[in-house]
Amino acid sequence: MEEYRIIKALSGFYYVQTEDGVVECRARGRFRRQDQSPLVGDFVRITRQGDKGVLEALLPRKNAFIRPAVANIDQLVVLASCAIPVTEPFLIDRVLAIAQLQNVPALVVVNKDDLAPAQPLAEIYRRAGVPVLVTSAETGEGIEALREALAGKLSCLTGNSGVGKSSLLNRACPQLQLPVGEVSEKLGRGRHTTRHIELYSLGSNTFVADTPGFSAFDTERMELVHKEQLQYAFPEFAPYLGHCQFPDCAHRKEPGCAVRKALAEGKIGQTRYSTSRPGAGFILLERNGITAGQAKLIRAAVLLPPLLF
Ligand SMILES: Nc1nc2c(ncn2[C@@H]2O[C@H](COP(=O)(O)OP(=O)(O)OP(=O)(O)O)[C@@H](O)[C@H]2O)c(=O)[nH]1
Ligand SMILES: [Mg+2]
Ligand SMILES: [Zn+2]
Which range (26-40, 162-176, 266-280, 286-300) has the least confidence? Predict the structure, then answer.
């Protein structure tokens, strides 16, 4: 049997890169029965049937994400914009938190600097110790730095619809010619131009996945995180953890809280702290017991990596 990587998933078919081109595959029924969903980035075993193929098995993953649905990435690139469609910091924070809990390096890119100054948003993440680039797909600002940041890795771009994920990739690699869409000024959001996840080669050992932007529906959905783990999803909190008066401090209203003290002193950003609070976009799992509603969500989220349970 042959082992290859899935580079695209579309309408129930999986497209696998082989030495002699891309092969369209379908998955065996047992994947569905076992609640296993192959993802772009997965390594799979296939058998051939003429010029088509069949996915026979998924090889072990080093990481996996639900949104965007990708596996085995080296870096998550969170694209944001201060021009329409404006990216709310909590959206960035949620993606960064999930990456951090999976030990996947993240990069924040604030695009459209030609339309609205990107620095204030960029500064929030610089202060949190996250690598940040400021770019413009229009003027080419920051493109060389972006190319360098992508080199030699498999990166996945994510961000709300219309921030310029596809535009930026086109600018970094003009032969890609990815479709880009208009932004609706009236609604203040993108038009979901990119409809599927696909992995592109940008040269030696460099791959990047373009993904559909989050939709309003997506952003209402919550991420599942263990209650005690949430604080570790924010790396700049680390120096203060373990220094609160109460060992089980939730960093909310408890007296002697070192995290809140750092917040008051401006060492932790207000938006970062707000996202880390229970109820701000995460469903917090109790160690020994989950509610029926959570159990349903967990079944729906079969792709969640073991770390999050
Ligand atoms: N002025 C300016 N316009 C940009 C920039 N980046 C993207 N755009 C425009 O923003 C619109 C949306 O860009 P896309 O690249 O389609 O955005 P996307 O993030 O791929 O959106 P989805 O595929 O819907 O998730 C297009 O009209 C682009 O021309 C930029 O840096 N500056
Ligand atoms: Mg796009
Ligand atoms: Zn505390």
Answer: 286-300
Closest Cα to residue 162, out of 181, 177, 143? Answer: 181
Q: Which residue in the block uniquely carries the two structure tokens 């360098």?
A: 148
pTM for this one? Answer: 0.89
Residue 196 CB–ligand 1 contact under 6 Å: no
Residues 6+ apart with CB under 8 A from 29: none
Closest CA to 224 of 301, 140, 124, 121: 301
Helix (H) or strand (E) holding 201: strand 198-201
CA of 243 to the centre of ligand 3 (A): 8
Query: What does the pLDDT read at residue 309?
Result: 28
* Index of the ligand 1 atom closest to the CA of residue 214: 25
Asked if 275 and 94 count as a contact pair (C-beta separation under 8 A), the reply is: yes
Estimate the crossing angle of helix 89-101 against helix 119-127, to 10 degrees: 30
pLDDT in tens, 72-118: 999 999 999 999 999 999 889 989 998 998 899 999 999 999 999 99
What would the mean pLDDT of 233-259 be, rounded to a whole number? 95
Does the CB atom of residue 171 touch ligand 1 within 6 A? Answer: no
Q: Is 267 helix (H, G, I), strand (E, B) or coil?
A: coil
Residue 177 identity (one-letter amino acid): Q
- The arithmetic mean of pLDDT across residues 191-210, rounded, is 93
Q: Give the closest residue (by CA) to ligand 1 atom 9.
A: 164
Q: Is the CB of 142 under 6 A from ligand 1?
A: no
7 within 8 A of 201, measured Cβ to Cβ: no
The rounded distance, in Å, linking the Cα atoms of 222 and 85 is 21
d(CA 253, CA 277): 11
* Number of residues assigned to the chain: 309
Kindly give the distance from the C-alpha atom of residue 131 to the centroid of ligand 1, in angstroms, as a whole number.
22
